[in-house]
Design goal:
The chain is an alpha+beta fold and 451 residues long. It has three domains: 2-132, no CATH class; 141-373, Orthogonal Bundle (Hypothetical protein af1432), CATH 1.10.3210; 383-449, no CATH class. 50% of the residues lie in helices and 10% in strands. It has helices at 2-21, 27-43, 73-85, 99-109, 113-122, 141-168, 175-191, 193-198, 208-226, 231-243, 253-256, 264-271, 273-285, 289-300, 321-335, 348-357, 365-375; strands at residues 50-55, 58-61, 64-65, 88-93, 128-132, 383-386, 391-396, 406-411, 422-424, 433-437. The strands form two sheets. Strands 3-2-1-4-5 form a five-stranded antiparallel sheet, with helices on one face. Strands 9-8-7-6-10 form a five-stranded antiparallel sheet. A hairpin with a 4-residue loop joins strand 6 and strand 7 (391-396). The longest helix has 28 residues, at 141-168. The two termini are 21 Å apart.
Length: 451
């Protein structure tokens, strides 16, 4: 994506410079217009639109900040200064734009502020949209949404922690707070699904139970949305995900956080958290509709697709759809989270492979497929080695191709930390992922790139 944004800025710069010198029918201008539109049309096969946003001293291409080296700095600075002088906050190019429309626009944007605003108001553009800024410090919407999503996640974490600690200490629980945070997570998911999912890379070793419960709730919510569940069902599913391990409050913390291998008796005790979950949900939620769903999921979330698992069940008794969803999300987050007895967790890349391998055994095959499409073959937070010798962290998925994510380079070829570019592997054809690697080897916490 970084290279694509740089190329657009460079080509746009060349076109404006051409119309400053030559008539719009001159071959130099026409060729510059052709090159620009050819590149735009190529990118519009990947992106739904092309958007340049100016904020303070930065230019963003499709919500990604552009960083230029010396060879491209002049064009970036020119475009930034031009947008700033004309008070343009964002410039969006839509499918259908052609050479003539772009050349006319370039001939107008070359003007000084007063003449520009006069001409732009008199000219109709079908595929070019301009948003003007009234406040220099006005943040772009996508940056505001990101901050709001983070606030929703961390507030949900606090509420989850308070809920379980109150149950541990036999204090009253605030059901209304749980309901509010569930709906705030649903809103956050609708705003930026991938941004919210990125926050599930947060893995707090010392507060595993709380982080894990919230992450399972968020992952379940996202999977439920992908299969088309209505909002009321999503709220019930998210609540069930948050409460799936609530039965552990009846088990000694010494056992839950034991570092050594469990004895057979200790393992049997730990497995009873599914039974205890029914009782604890009744305390927290009562027998309303969400309570009934949550206690069922708490009881069934270790039931496997092939009929195995615990606690015992009547032969051929099928778990709820919500229980099947939580079964997958619980397993994924558990595999990818460091714990006392699992200090080195599974790489996210391998965890999704295990889920796929165990479809039809532990996991519902249809839900497993949707889950992998949701997270991608290289989930957010996964560290990867590139064919360039650099090391990058996966920062976002591409919905059109879940094998080609967006990555941020964080270590150079010498394995020294850098603040590298973000690249879209759909557009950067020459960049390939060689393999997934452990962040612990380099002392890297992947979640630090999302908070």
């Amino acid at each position: 994506m970084s290279t694509s944004g740089k190329d657009i800025v460079s080509l746009f710069y060349a076109l404006i410079k051409a119309v400053q010198v030559y008539d719009i029918n001159n071959d130099v201008v026409q060729n510059a217009g052709k090159k620009f539109i050819y590149y735009i049309d190529t990118l519009l096969n990947i992106y739904s639109q092309i958007e340049l946003i100016r904020y303070r001293d930065y230019i963003f291409f499709n919500k990604q900040r552009l960083r230029f080296e010396i060879d491209g700095y002049a064009s970036l600075q020119f475009i930034h200064d031009k947008l700033k002088k004309l008070r343009i906050k964002s410039l969006t190019l839509s499918p259908g734009i052609d050479k003539d429309e772009m050349i006319i626009f370039a001939s107008i944007i070359k003007e000084e502020e007063d003449e520009f605003h006069k001409k732009i108001s008199d000219t109709k553009f079908d595929n070019i949209h301009i948003e003007f800024s009234t406040d220099e410090e006005e943040k772009p919407d996508f940056m505001q949404d990101g901050a709001r999503i983070k606030r929703s996640y961390f507030k949900a974490l606090r509420v989850t922690k308070n809920l379980m600690q109150n149950l541990w200490t036999k204090q009253p629980v605030d059901v209304k707070s749980t309901k509010r945070i569930v709906y705030s997570l649903i809103d956050a998911l609708s705003e930026d699904e991938l941004g919210l999912l990125a926050l599930t890379t947060i893995k707090n070793f010392d507060e595993y139970t709380f982080n894990h419960s919230l992450n399972v709730g968020v992952l379940s919510l996202a999977l439920g949305q992908r299969i088309g569940l209505p909002k009321k069902s999503l709220a019930a599913l998210c609540t069930a995900g948050l409460l799936h391990d609530i039965g552990k409050v009846e088990i000694s913390k010494d056992l839950i956080y034991k570092s050594g291998k469990l004895t057979e008796e200790e393992w049997e005790t730990l497995k009873r958290h599914s039974d205890y979950g029914v009782r604890e949900v009744l305390k927290a939620r009562g027998l309303d509709e969400m309570g009934l769903i949550s206690l069922t999921v708490a009881y069934q979330h270790h039931w496997n697709y092939d009929g195995t698992g615990y606690p015992g069940r009547i032969k051929k008794e099928d778990p709820l759809l919500f229980s099947k969803i939580v079964r997958i999300c619980d397993s994924y987050d558990a595999m990818t989270t460091p714990r006392v007895y699992q200090p080195i967790p599974y790489l996210p890349h391998y965890a999704v492979r295990i889920i796929w391998q165990l479809r039809n055994v532990w996991f519902d095959p249809v839900l497993a497929k949707v889950f992998i499409q949701l997270l991608g073959l290289y989930p957010v937070g996964n560290l990867v080695k590139l064919n360039t010798g650099e090391i990058a962290v996966v920062v976002r998925q591409n919905q059109g191709n879940f094998a080609l994510p967006m990555i941020k380079v964080i270590l150079d070829k010498k394995e020294e930390k850098i603040d590298g570019n973000i690249m879209d592997l759909r557009a950067e054809k020459e960049i390939k992922i060689v393999k997934s690697i452990y962040p612990q080897k380099y002392g890297i916490n992947p979640s630090s790139y999302f908070v």
